């Protein structure tokens, strides 16, 4: 009878571990959108200042040159004004164009089914499966609508954007945040 009781206790412990492990898994399902990628690019830009500094410096040089020429001549030159407006639009629009390009690359794969577990992040589509273990990531940052996971490489060339709209159940966002906090730091 004592053996039967201890086996039952072992079964309960195993069942308890299964329930705990099941709660540690968060599933998302979503179709990627261009604003998702843009949110990821903005997070990367805030973490990695190089791109922001280069774009800002480039923009300041162009505007400064235009101001010096305009003040020096005493009149606004149409060609240099059009060029400065073009440069401002290109610098401002570059992240949006990059997000649209990424959308063309990933959008055709359809729905993304992502599983975040103690082992890492697994992303499945109709055409591929990507498994990423936690050491791939340097950390994550949370925005109003996304969790953005940043790669460990120096250029942060890889982003994994998990839209909050993809969570299946209420409370999954909090569980996902707790799971991320457990395995990678906030940056």
Care to give the gist of this entry?
The chain is an alpha+beta fold. It is built from five helices and seven strands; from the N terminus they run αβαααββββββα.
Can you offer a commentary on this structure?
- This protein has 187 residues and is α+β, with helices and mostly antiparallel strands.
- 55% of the residues lie in helices and 20% in strands.
- It contains five helices and seven strands.
- The strands form two sheets. Strands 1-2-3-4 form a four-stranded antiparallel sheet.
- Helix 3 runs antiparallel to helix 4 (78-106).
- The N and C termini lie far apart (54 Å).
Percent of residues in beta strands: 15-25%
Low-pLDDT windows of residues: 1-20
Mean pLDDT: 85
Which word captures the global form?
Answer: elongated
Structural class: alpha+beta
- How much helix, percentage-wise, in residues? 40-55%
The overall strand count is 7
Please give the oligomerization state of what you see: single chain
What is the helix/strand order? HEHHHEEEEEEH
List descriptors.
187 residues, alpha+beta, four-stranded antiparallel sheet, three-stranded antiparallel sheet, 5 helices, disordered N terminus
Q: Secondary-structure blueprint of this entry?
A:
Elements (H helix, E strand, L loop, with lengths): L1 H22 L2 E5 L3 H14 L1 H25 L4 H29 L5 E6 L2 E5 L4 E5 L3 E6 L3 E6 L7 E5 L8 H12 L4
Antiparallel strand pairs: 1-2, 2-3, 3-4, 5-6, 6-7
Helix pairs in contact: 2-3, 2-4, 3-4
